[in-house]
Amino acid sequence: MLSQQIIDCLNQQINLEIYSSHLYLQMSSWCAYKSLEGCATFLSQHADEEMTHMRRLLNYLQETGAFAVIDGMQAPPTDFNSLTEMFEKIYGHEKLVTSKINNLVHLANTEPDYATLQFLQWYVAEQHQEEFLFKSILDKIKLIGTEGQGIFFIDREIANMAANRTQETTAMN
């Protein structure tokens, strides 16, 4: 049985994952509007992935007999000054998600709630990958630049990342 504090924190994480999905979907729409189809596809995939993260949390709460609560949330931003700014915001957001997961892990370890601690280990590894992914995208943007044809090459590189994710997902199924 989960403590009320764990339930509340897991519910907060559920809602943060939903917000993350909405954020990336909105960013995908911005990219599509700016004719950055590769980035739009990549972020749309990422929005779907965030909903999968939410469902894992939701299922865990349900399996433990706890009540999952979906709250209202603030709308994500709709406009960005540049592709670089957008990916910087994503990287900052992923660091926030990592800190929230780390807080959950600390709470589960402190209570102690070993089942929840074990469940959260997947999220710890996932967040490490997420931060690495978006840091590497920012590194590529800095390396290639966004002037002239640079933005075209960045969009193409991110389109390749989206295609690779699709192949990986297909291979796992």
Would you kindly provide a written description of the structure presented here, covering whatever features stand out?
This protein has a single domain (4-172), classed as Up-down Bundle (Ferritin), CATH 1.20.1260. The protein has 173 residues and is an all-alpha fold. The two termini are 33 Å apart. The mean pLDDT is 95. The protein has helices at 4-33, 37-63, 83-110, 114-144, 150-172. The protein is 80% helix and 0% strand. The chain is elongated, with a radius of gyration of 17 Å.
List keywords for this structure.
single chain; Ferritin; elongated; 173 residues; mainly alpha
Record the SSE blueprint.
Elements: H1 4-33, H2 37-63, H3 83-110, H4 114-144, H5 150-172
Helix pairs in contact: 1-2, 1-3, 2-5, 3-4, 4-5
H and E string = HHHHH
Count up the helices.
5
Shape designation = elongated
> What would CATH call the homologous superfamily?
Ferritin, core subunit, four-helix bundle
Distance between the termini: 33 Å
Q: Briefly note the structural class of the backbone.
A: mainly alpha
Q: Briefly, what CATH class?
A: Mainly Alpha
Number of separate strands? 0
Number of domains: 1
**Which architecture name does CATH use?**
Up-down Bundle
Portion in beta strands: under 5%
Task: From the 3D structure, determine the CATH topology.
Answer: Ferritin
Integer average pLDDT: 95
Low-pLDDT stretches: none
Rg (C-alpha, Å): 17 Å
**Helix content class:** over 70%
Largest sheet descriptor = none
